[in-house]
Specification:
about 150 residues; alpha/beta; Rossmann fold; five-stranded parallel sheet; 5 strands
Length: about 150
Protein backbone atom coordinates (compact mmCIF):
# COMPACT_ATOMS: atom_id res chain seq x y z
CA UNK A 1 0.00 0.00 0.00
CA UNK A 2 1.48 3.34 -1.07
CA UNK A 3 1.61 5.85 1.74
CA UNK A 4 0.20 9.30 1.09
CA UNK A 5 2.38 12.15 2.22
CA UNK A 6 1.85 15.86 2.63
CA UNK A 7 4.16 16.18 -0.34
CA UNK A 8 1.27 15.08 -2.57
CA UNK A 9 -0.16 17.48 -3.49
CA UNK A 10 2.91 19.58 -2.89
CA UNK A 11 2.78 21.41 0.42
CA UNK A 12 4.19 24.89 0.75
CA UNK A 13 7.42 25.61 2.60
CA UNK A 14 7.52 28.83 4.60
CA UNK A 15 11.11 30.11 4.66
CA UNK A 16 11.70 32.80 7.29
CA UNK A 17 15.16 34.21 6.52
CA UNK A 18 16.29 37.85 6.57
CA UNK A 19 19.61 37.37 4.77
CA UNK A 20 18.96 37.47 0.99
CA UNK A 21 22.11 35.46 0.21
CA UNK A 22 21.18 32.69 2.66
CA UNK A 23 17.60 32.62 1.37
CA UNK A 24 18.91 32.18 -2.19
CA UNK A 25 21.26 29.42 -1.03
CA UNK A 26 18.31 27.63 0.58
CA UNK A 27 16.25 27.95 -2.62
CA UNK A 28 19.23 26.69 -4.67
CA UNK A 29 19.63 23.73 -2.31
CA UNK A 30 15.95 22.82 -2.76
CA UNK A 31 16.30 23.14 -6.53
CA UNK A 32 19.51 21.04 -6.63
CA UNK A 33 17.68 18.35 -4.64
CA UNK A 34 14.72 18.50 -7.05
CA UNK A 35 12.36 19.51 -4.26
CA UNK A 36 9.49 21.13 -6.10
CA UNK A 37 7.42 22.35 -3.19
CA UNK A 38 6.46 26.00 -3.52
CA UNK A 39 8.52 28.23 -1.23
CA UNK A 40 7.09 31.34 0.39
CA UNK A 41 9.98 33.50 1.58
CA UNK A 42 9.52 36.20 4.22
CA UNK A 43 12.28 38.31 5.71
CA UNK A 44 11.22 39.28 9.24
CA UNK A 45 9.11 38.27 12.20
CA UNK A 46 6.23 40.61 11.34
CA UNK A 47 5.88 39.10 7.86
CA UNK A 48 6.11 35.60 9.30
CA UNK A 49 3.34 36.34 11.80
CA UNK A 50 1.17 37.79 9.00
CA UNK A 51 1.47 34.52 7.08
CA UNK A 52 0.88 32.49 10.25
CA UNK A 53 -2.14 34.62 11.06
CA UNK A 54 -3.60 34.02 7.60
CA UNK A 55 -3.11 30.26 8.11
CA UNK A 56 -4.81 30.50 11.51
CA UNK A 57 -7.81 32.24 9.99
CA UNK A 58 -7.95 30.04 6.89
CA UNK A 59 -7.46 33.11 4.70
CA UNK A 60 -4.40 32.20 2.64
CA UNK A 61 -6.09 33.16 -0.63
CA UNK A 62 -2.80 33.18 -2.51
CA UNK A 63 -1.78 29.72 -1.37
CA UNK A 64 -2.59 26.81 -3.64
CA UNK A 65 -1.18 24.33 -1.15
CA UNK A 66 -1.24 24.00 2.64
CA UNK A 67 1.85 24.96 4.61
CA UNK A 68 3.64 21.69 5.31
CA UNK A 69 6.98 22.90 6.69
CA UNK A 70 8.33 26.06 8.29
CA UNK A 71 12.07 26.82 8.16
CA UNK A 72 12.74 29.51 10.72
CA UNK A 73 15.86 31.54 11.36
CA UNK A 74 15.88 32.88 14.90
CA UNK A 75 18.04 35.94 14.20
CA UNK A 76 15.49 37.95 12.21
CA UNK A 77 14.41 41.60 12.49
CA UNK A 78 11.33 43.08 14.14
CA UNK A 79 10.12 40.00 16.07
CA UNK A 80 12.80 37.40 16.71
CA UNK A 81 12.35 33.87 15.47
CA UNK A 82 11.94 32.39 18.95
CA UNK A 83 8.89 34.62 19.53
CA UNK A 84 7.52 33.62 16.12
CA UNK A 85 8.07 29.97 17.06
CA UNK A 86 6.27 30.45 20.37
CA UNK A 87 3.30 31.92 18.48
CA UNK A 88 3.23 29.11 15.90
CA UNK A 89 3.26 26.38 18.52
CA UNK A 90 0.72 28.03 20.83
CA UNK A 91 -1.99 28.25 18.17
CA UNK A 92 -4.41 25.40 17.54
CA UNK A 93 -4.33 25.88 13.73
CA UNK A 94 -0.56 26.03 13.29
CA UNK A 95 0.95 24.04 16.17
CA UNK A 96 1.15 20.83 14.12
CA UNK A 97 3.05 22.34 11.19
CA UNK A 98 6.58 20.92 11.39
CA UNK A 99 8.85 23.81 12.32
CA UNK A 100 12.59 23.49 11.86
CA UNK A 101 14.86 26.15 13.31
CA UNK A 102 17.55 26.72 10.70
CA UNK A 103 20.04 29.22 12.05
CA UNK A 104 23.69 30.08 12.59
CA UNK A 105 23.33 30.17 16.37
CA UNK A 106 24.92 27.34 18.32
CA UNK A 107 24.10 28.99 21.64
CA UNK A 108 22.89 26.43 24.16
CA UNK A 109 20.28 28.89 25.47
CA UNK A 110 18.84 29.37 21.95
CA UNK A 111 18.65 25.60 21.44
CA UNK A 112 16.97 25.06 24.81
CA UNK A 113 14.45 27.87 24.18
CA UNK A 114 13.67 26.60 20.69
CA UNK A 115 12.80 23.14 21.99
CA UNK A 116 10.94 24.59 24.99
CA UNK A 117 8.83 26.65 22.56
CA UNK A 118 8.02 23.57 20.48
CA UNK A 119 10.58 23.39 17.67
CA UNK A 120 10.45 20.06 15.88
CA UNK A 121 14.14 20.26 14.99
CA UNK A 122 17.11 22.61 15.42
CA UNK A 123 19.73 22.73 12.68
CA UNK A 124 22.82 24.91 12.51
CA UNK A 125 23.53 26.16 9.00
CA UNK A 126 26.77 24.62 7.77
CA UNK A 127 29.40 26.88 6.21
CA UNK A 128 30.03 24.54 3.28
CA UNK A 129 27.39 24.76 0.53
CA UNK A 130 27.73 21.08 -0.42
CA UNK A 131 27.10 20.08 3.18
CA UNK A 132 24.10 22.44 3.23
CA UNK A 133 22.69 20.83 0.07
CA UNK A 134 22.89 17.42 1.72
CA UNK A 135 21.35 18.76 4.94
CA UNK A 136 18.41 20.21 2.97
CA UNK A 137 17.98 16.89 1.14
CA UNK A 138 17.86 14.89 4.36
CA UNK A 139 15.63 17.41 6.13
CA UNK A 140 13.19 17.53 3.23
CA UNK A 141 13.16 13.77 2.80
CA UNK A 142 12.26 13.35 6.45
CA UNK A 143 9.74 16.19 6.96
CA UNK A 144 8.06 16.18 3.54
CA UNK A 145 8.11 12.47 2.66
CA UNK A 146 8.79 10.12 5.58
CA UNK A 147 7.20 11.90 8.52
CA UNK A 148 3.56 11.04 9.12
CA UNK A 149 1.88 14.37 9.85
CA UNK A 150 -1.49 15.12 11.38
CA UNK A 151 -1.84 17.64 8.55
CA UNK A 152 -2.58 14.64 6.33
CA UNK A 153 -5.42 13.30 8.43
Amino acid sequence: MKRMSINYPLSEILLVEDNPAEAELAKMAFKKNKIENPILHVTDGDEALEVISSIEKGKRKTASYPCGLILLDINIPKINGLEVLKHIKSNEHTKNIPTVVLTTSEEVLDIKKAYAYGANSYLVKPQDFHVFIEEVRLMSKYWLELNKSVLEL
